[in-house]
Design a protein that fits this description.
single chain, alpha/beta, FAD/NAD(P)-binding domain, six-stranded antiparallel beta sheet, 11 helices, about 20% helix, FAD/NAD-bd_sf, flavoprotein, flavin adenine dinucleotide binding, GMC_OxRtase_C
């Protein structure tokens, strides 16, 4: 029998970036908020002396335990989906702060083209440009509407950056861009000579000491090279632990409960009443009642909770009805590696988002009329720092082990460069999330099932973007270049970028989307879903800046709803 707890104004499921932003904003307004996080509590001090590459980067210390909760995977409907015990494609964060603790810090923002992608594609190229199986739809929001929230997010986070020549903004980043290394300088000079438009990547790593509008002060980045997969012991990387969560906790209106795994959202007569969760340490079960329920977990968890709670209509790829589980998409890497015989770079140092990017082949900044795909990707070079275990690259033809491998990997440790694009998958009717009919998690709830594969769109875009990366690498003067423009089936056991979106998508029509542009669920309007699961399509950049901006907009909507409960417009 579950213990029923006193009702609060808001219960937040998943205390990462989105959950932290919502908690800070609502508690500042006086609302009582309970934050439920299935992992353990974390603080900056936990990461002192934490530069253990094996523990964090390879054994995934900060990630979800796949032996207890995972998902099943298949490429197509006729295949049997099986539980995944290795997911190199994803870094599923767990614990307070979520994936915001171990992210790199890239804070690019989605394009207006992304938010209105169907309309803008048809306006420029005609409806025939969209393949029959591509379930492309607008988000029901524009860049103009979301722009103020972008600004709020980067000021809270202390983002370091400079103006993008192809899309200058009316405001500047609160901190100047990060240092320019010799590798970055070479990329800037080379791409400018090619007629392209490079800019230093916007970074969640502080370029200088900074105090944000909430009065939170943090120290500058030390360029230690332990960002992705690691927590930051300096507090220099913008994450929920050092930005929004201290603000929520300082109000006295926020109660954080770690080790609390939410199993379902409870609802009756079209209204949510609360959530049922289990204390993972004791096995005790609780019901937390609330006026508003917020799902702000990872893409998979948000979708799984709605499906298991029977909120919304599950997506059916045959009839293309329903929306919960629809439009799952990811990034894939298009890249070119270069090795330099006569030049060394200081690759032992770096930061998660230290780099240079260009938008010339992203979105619709280039003409797709004669191309057999839409969209593209941000092209970047980054200097995250080459850690010893994962940095043993050598040119093609080098043996995979033995004396010659050691010699070549040591020689090229400081003589390598990667030009890459995070090329987006476009939504496809056959790429979706559903509940698995066979496999369950440790609490008896059906696992989420992923059905995903690449289409001609992805293969064509991959070939194009790989060739652009290789062209830049040739101009950089590399003596050995490795670029592979062919890809097989989608495989979550191999490395691809870990930016899963979709499943609880945003839109204007309740028949084809799960939430409106305030992240409010159409069918149960006191439930709000935050995070990348609400993205109706993927972009050529990292999702965090857009995720954060939408969370700030949702906070305004939830405040309005608590004052006058209704569907927001």
């Amino acid at each position: 029998m579950a213990t029923k707890l006193p009702s609060v104004d808001v219960v937040v499921v998943g205390v990462g970036w989105a959950g932290g932003i919502i908690s800070a904003e609502l508690t500042k307004k006086g609302y009582k908020v309970v934050g439920l996080e299935r992992g353990k509590e974390r603080k900056t001090e936990d990461f002192l002396n934490g530069h253990d590459e094996l523990k964090y980067a390879h054994r995934k210390e900060l990630m979800q335990d796949l032996s207890k909760d995972t998902l099943t995977f298949r490429n197509k409907d006729l295949e049997e989906a099986l539980p995944m015990r290795k997911m190199s494609a994803f870094s599923l964060g767990t614990g307070v702060g979520g994936a915001g603790v171990h992210w790199n810090g890239f804070t690019h923002l989605f394009l207006d083209y992304d938010f209105q992608i169907r309309t803008k594609t048809i306006e420029r190229y005609g409806e025939s440009k969209i393949p029959e199986d591509m379930t492309l739809q607008d988000w029901g929001i524009t860049e103009e509407l979301i722009e103020p929230y972008f600004k709020t997010f980067v000021e809270m986070a202390g983002t370091s950056g400079e103006q993008n020549p192809l899309r200058p903004r009316s405001w500047d980043y609160p901190n100047p861009p990060m240092k320019v290394t010799p590798k970055m300088k070479r990329f800037i000079d080379t791409t400018e000579e090619m007629g392209l438009n490079p800019f230093i990547s916007p970074s969640g790593n502080l370029s200088q000491n900074y105090t944000n509008p909430d009065g939170v002060s943090r120290a500058a980045c030390q360029y230690c090279a332990f960002c992705d997969h690691f927590g930051c012991e300096y507090g220099a990387k913008s994450d929920p632990l050092v930005t929004v969560l201290p603000v929520a906790q300082s109000t006295g209106n926020f109660e954080l409960r770690a080790h609390s795994n939410v199993l379902e959202v409870l609802h009756e007569n079209g209204k949510a009443t609360g959530v049922r969760y289990i204390n993972v340490l004791t096995g005790e079960e609780y019901i937390q009642e609330a006026r508003v329920v917020i799902l702000s977990a990872y893409t998979f968890t948000n979708t799984k909770l709605l499906l298991n709670s029977k909120i919304g209509t599950p997506y059916d790829p045959v009839t293309q009805t329903g929306a919960v589980g629809k439009n799952y998409a990811d990034h894939f890497l298009s890249m070119a590696f270069g090795f330099f015989d006569d030049e060394q770079f200081n690759d032992y140092a770096g930061a998660g988002a230290l780099g240079v990017s260009l938008d010339d082949y992203n979105g619709d900044f280039f003409d797709h009329t004669e191309l057999d795909f839409i969209h593209g990707g941000l092209i970047s070079i980054s200097q995250v720092g080459n850690r010893p275990i994962g940095s043993n690259l050598a040119p093609l033809g080098t043996p995979g082990w033995g004396a010659e491998f050691k010699k070549q990997s040591l020689y090229y440790y400081n003589r390598q460069m990667m030009v890459f694009s995070q090329t987006p998958m476009m939504p496809n009717r056959y790429n979706y999330l559903s509940l698995d009919p066979t496999y369950k998690d440790e609490y008896g709830m059906p696992l989420l099932r992923m059905t995903v594969n690449y289409s001609k769109q992805e293969n064509n875009a991959h070939k194009f973007m790989t060739n652009k990366c290789a062209e830049i690498m040739e101009n950089l003067g590399a003596t050995h270049i490795m670029a592979f423009d062919q890809q097989g089936d989608y495989n979550i056991g191999s490395f691809v970028p870990e930016h899963s979106i979709g499943g609880t998508i945003m839109g204007e029509d309740p028949a084809t989307s799960v939430v409106n542009n305030y992240s409010q669920v159409w069918d149960v309007n006191n439930v709000f879903v935050l995070g990348a699961s609400t993205f109706a399509s993927q972009s050529g950049v990292n999702p965090t800046g857009t995720l954060g901006a939408l969370a700030y907009r949702a906070a305004e909507g939830i405040d309005s709803f608590l004052k006058e409960p209704k569907l927001l417009v």
